């Protein structure tokens, strides 16, 4: 069993026998899951990536000038596609200031992180690319040392995957890890029409369904399971108005009876019962600014796109 399988075992024991059963979202992102997510970002229904890209397009140069950062750490960097807009702006700035710029993409998805970092190193020879395989929910959140201000970046609305308590914990850990004068750039999806939100997580082509159901394959492989099949689960995406979040569930199509050899345990799920795999909280700009302030950073700018769909917030420690 690898270290990752060991952590999956711990999360499965803690989550699958709870009510409702649940698993941490990070387990959606094995190599196949990361590639499927990348496909999702290009779907017509999935507006967040296009909207966030348009804000970055308009603001990247300004962000590089405002922060004058020497090091950028990105949590959950994935393929770093949008981040290229920031990298170009910082590379241009490094050329004029003569100061070296370092980019640390950080992700749990090892294969995607490594292949993306190799491509970035080729495309940005003037930037030092130092990928880090790490879990951003770990209690020992640390940032690399730097010869100038640092900017921590968290894009894609991934902050929405935390519930309220986890978000408060993450933000205060991050604020503590930053030094005075460091920056935090946060991308967050905004509350909007429910129909558009649900469609973004339940696309017509079924790519999000494949992405969600891939969690079953991750469990089967990682925990050596007998009786666990992707085809026995439906993808469900629904809006939870109380917590203003989209929830993704896996619903059993029949009674499930699984032997997890990796856990030496049996797991049952009745037909129609559901496992929670992802929440995606949507935000109000003022509420988010208050949360950031409470965590210990000062909000300096909030930018939205032309459609007011997505929000980029730059704050300073
Ligand atoms: C919604 S995707 C966003 C990817 C990219 N930043 C974007 O904006 O398109 C979430 C990313 O966070 C990573 N991730 C999820 N949970 C993580 C965790 N606990 N620690 C580190 N990375 C994580 C995933 O592997 C994935 O690359």
UniProtKB/TrEMBL annotation:
Gene3D superfamilies: Vaccinia Virus protein VP39
SUPFAM superfamilies: S-adenosyl-L-methionine-dependent methyltransferases (SSF53335)
Keywords: Methyltransferase, Transferase
Positions of transmembrane segments: none
GO molecular function: L-histidine N(alpha)-methyltransferase activity
NCBIfam families: egtD_ergothio
Listed name of the protein: L-histidine N(Alpha)-methyltransferase
Organism field: Gordonia mangrovi
